[in-house]
Amino acid sequence: MSTATATTTKWGIDPTHSEVSFKVKHLVISTVTGYFKSFDASAETDSEDFDGAKVSFSADINSIDTNQTDRDNHLKSADFFDAEKFPTMNFSGVLQGEKLVGDLTIKDITKTVELNVDFGGVVEDPYGNTKAGFEIEGKISRKEFGLMWNAVTEAGSVVVSDQVRIILGIQLVKQ
Predict the structure, then answer these.
(1) pTM, to two decimals
(2) Is 68 helix (H, G, I), strand (E, B) or coil?
(3) What is the pLDDT of residues 119-171, one digit of tens each?
(4) Residue 7 DSSP label
(5) Range(s) of the domain holding residue 30
(6) b/e map of 28-53 (b: 16 or more CB within 10 Å)?
């Protein structure tokens, strides 16, 4: 009697074809977009559709970029991410159909999050590399992760919304 064993395929990030961004309301009337310029991701899967894939991700907090140096420095400070003490944000989870469910750690706080996934498919690039593409989106409460700073305007509006949209365009390359 023979036993079939599943082959695990490992995938790594293609950083030149991936981006990690976030959006947050400012003064309730407009949206500020930011990016993490330095990040890493990997996946291990036993299936071609990535269902059940184990996914890990990390972002370098010091690589945050909102196109405004003073704001970036404030986000890196103890008021928000406290990059000196907590230099990375980490995620570890499993792809379950069109959902990526796992533990997100920001600062020293870990919470389970669920992100929506649009799997773009797998293709071979002109150089013979096998690539897989994903669009991933979700929302988190920044305050649940200890990012508590805020101010109130004279009219009573908060400066920074609690809700943060996470948007990732990820391309993985078969290892």
Answers:
(1) 0.87
(2) coil
(3) 999 999 999 999 999 999 999 988 888 776 665 545 544 456 777 899 999 99
(4) P
(5) 9-174
(6) eeeebebbbebbebbbebeeeebeeb
